[in-house]
Amino acid sequence: MTALDPDSVVDRASFFRFAEALVAERVSAEELERRHPQRYCLGGAEDWQNSTISSYLECALAGAGAQADWGTSSTGPTWRDLAVFLWLGKIYE
């Protein structure tokens, strides 16, 4: 599993690794988008669909809401659920 696989998140430490990898990937994507704006005018680099915080959060919420089983554990959301939420902000359109 890669650092950007939400299924690899099982605890606090792996969640932080996931979030750090997501940040690093977004930084890389932003640099690619700056260098090649025409290439990424319809979709972001590194498969990032949402480049603003508002669109990122909107899509994370929409994606989580569309999944009937997201965050439904009897003990509340898991570390994996939180990672999936962040992941959805990246990929959900």
TrEMBL record:
Protein name according to UniProt: Uncharacterized protein
Organism field: Piscinibacter gummiphilus
